[in-house]
Specification:
The structure holds 2 protein chains of 2 kinds. Chain A contains no helices and 11 strands. Chain B is an all-beta fold. Chain B is globular. The chains are: A mainly beta, B mainly beta. Chains A and B meet through strand 5 of A and strand 5, strand 6, strand 10 and strand 11 of B.
Chain lengths: ~120, ~120
């Protein structure tokens, strides 16, 4: 298995531009998570999906952020318009529902976003 | 709400030294506890986990015991290697019903091991 795949690995954009981050979870996994990691705030859960349905988006910082999961094998996190304070590493992770809360999450390599 | 507090780093040790990274938590109910490791340029990987009080998780020489009375899950290794240099995250996961989870990570502790 290729693991969780994220693209792009690096993104540099200018303030005000739209940014779309992509994630392909591990095949068969029921849950998909989006995280943001910064030096100041550490690792923050933004949103997660169960069977393509958003369950908890309370971590999404503002209306500028949106996430979708149109099918079991693809999810996007969009920022529009982007701001310099959005610069961070964004991780996608997936896990199986079977076994409840004890199942580990498998993380992708992350997308390093820089907004100038 | 739930919270996880880790000792602040960075931590620098010589090879073969003993490692302890402290982690305490606050949560309602009965969370599961995890340690994740992040190597440079990579995503997080599960290192070990414990699902109930007094459970001991272990992997690759690392150990952590779920202590409910002290709400702690300290990470230990008897003899660190240069290859253990990474950032370590303590985390808790609590099921809150209807397919919903509460997930909380500590801020991470950077470990550097020098030859």
């Amino acid at each position: 298995d290729a693991g969780v795949i994220q693209s792009p690995r690096h993104e540099v954009t200018e303030m005000g531009q739209e940014v779309t981050l992509r994630c392909k979870p591990i095949s068969g996994h029921d849950y998909l998570f989006w995280y943001r990691q910064t030096m100041m705030r550490g690792l923050e859960l933004l949103i997660y999906f169960n069977n393509n349905v958003p369950i908890d988006d309370s971590g999404m910082p503002e209306d500028r952020f949106s996430a979708k999961m149109p099918n079991a094998s693809f999810s996007t996190l969009k920022i529009q318009p982007s701001e310099p304070r959005d610069s961070a590493v964004y991780f996608c992770a997936s896990s199986l529902a079977r076994g409840g809360p004890y199942n580990e999450q498998f993380f992708g390599p992350g997308t390093r976003l820089t907004v100038l | 709400g739930d919270s996880v507090t880790q000792m602040e780093g960075p931590v620098t040790l010589s090879e073969e030294a003993f490692l302890t990274i402290n982690c305490t938590y606050t949560a309602t109910g009965y969370p599961s506890l995890f340690w994740y490791v992040q190597y440079p340029g990579e995503g997080l990987q599960l290192l070990l986990k414990a699902t109930k009080a007094d459970d001991k998780g272990s992997n690759k020489g690392f150990e952590a015991t779920y202590r409910k009375e002290t709400t702690s899950f300290h990470l230990e290794k008897g003899s660190v290697q240069v290859s253990d240099s990474a950032v370590y995250f303590c985390a808790l996961r609590r099921y809150s019903g209807a397919g919903s989870y509460q997930l909380t990570f500590g801020k991470g502790t950077k470990l550097s091991v020098i030859p």
